[in-house]
Amino acid sequence: MSVSFADVEAAAGRIAGIAHRTPVLTSRTADARTGATLFFKAEPLQRAGAFKFRGACNAIAALSPEQRTRGVLAFSSGNHAQAIAYAGALQGVPTVIVMPHDAPAIKVAATRGYGAEIVPYDRYKEDREAVSRRIAEERGLSVIPPYDHPDVIAGQGTAVKELIEEVGPLDVLLVCLGGGGLLAGSCLAARALSPEVEIWGVEPEAGNDGQQSLAKGEVVRIPVPVSIADGALTTHLGQHTFPIIQREAAGIVTATDAQLVSAMRFFVERMKLVVEPTGCLAAAAAFEGAVPVKGKRVGVILSGGNVDPAALARHLAA
Ligand SMILES: *Cc1c(COP(=O)(O)O)cnc(C)c1O
């Protein structure tokens, strides 16, 4: 099943009134530093603190009444879990979350707080998809994956739809990249609403499977990367996300952990905004010149703000 801009539009209708229409922020300091006009889409201010709420809401809203009664299962390193738990709670659907045992404490606590049942697994020893499949089969739950699902991709595309509707056509769009749900959805929305836009994915330098995949022309799998960008520690793009990215993206660039910390500091100091390390990937590409932006109108997705306060303090003090 392929996914198109019509699906993004349908998702926007389904999530209206449930998901926030997040603000678009600007910064004269950031513009002066890059020579560009930057538009930051502030998904740290989305419900549950990240864009993942959009895809989760859309995927749950698209289920049949019978599937909703039985409940849904999600496997996630954090933000997708919180999004599913919260979207499920708001729509009266029970949720089970399969989470790595070493997921950030703030994310585990928040997910439980939304009323989800948590099943931990060891991400270095067990295959989360196999664990999830077994539990879902036993209990008759619908699995909603974090990125490789048409309804999830369509939901994630609503952020860029809002951004371009608000600020007009863009020359460049920078989007962080894990498994590619956000980038694929962003590609669909951006190509439809600003056809000439150049779209770039940005992933952690330590986990550049997306970059390798584009170079090779097929999905490349890598070992679990080690980076502070804990929302983008995916090992491969998806069967739904890769073809869209391959068709629409100009390319994929990377950011180092040090560059992410520097961007986090900028957002706290200058824009009074907490952006988690993964959420800084796209901004880091603009700040560090990984993608040429001078003289251009540039959309930058700040994807989420869920970082442990203690970890944030450590990063800022370093
Ligand atoms: C999940 C996530 C990403 C990566 O999204 P994909 O759809 O997997 O590419 C980026 N930033 C944050 C904050 C996330 O939670």
TrEMBL record:
UniProt keyword annotations, A-Z: Lyase, Pyridoxal phosphate
Gene3D superfamilies with a match to the protein in the record: 3.40.50.1100
Molecular functions (GO terms): ATP binding; D-serine ammonia-lyase activity; L-serine ammonia-lyase activity; magnesium ion binding; pyridoxal phosphate binding; serine racemase activity; threonine deaminase activity; threonine racemase activity
One Pfam short name: PALP
Enzyme class, spelled out: lyase
EC number(s) on file: 4.3.1.19
SUPFAM superfamilies according to UniProt: Tryptophan synthase beta subunit-like PLP-dependent enzymes
Occurrences of domain Tryptophan synthase beta chain-like PALP (ranges): 20-304
NCBIfam families: PRK07048.1 (NF005454)
Family annotation (PANTHER family): SERINE / THREONINE RACEMASE FAMILY MEMBER, SERINE RACEMASE
Family as reported in the entry's similarity comment: Belongs to the serine/threonine dehydratase family.
Name this protein carries in UniProt: Serine dehydratase
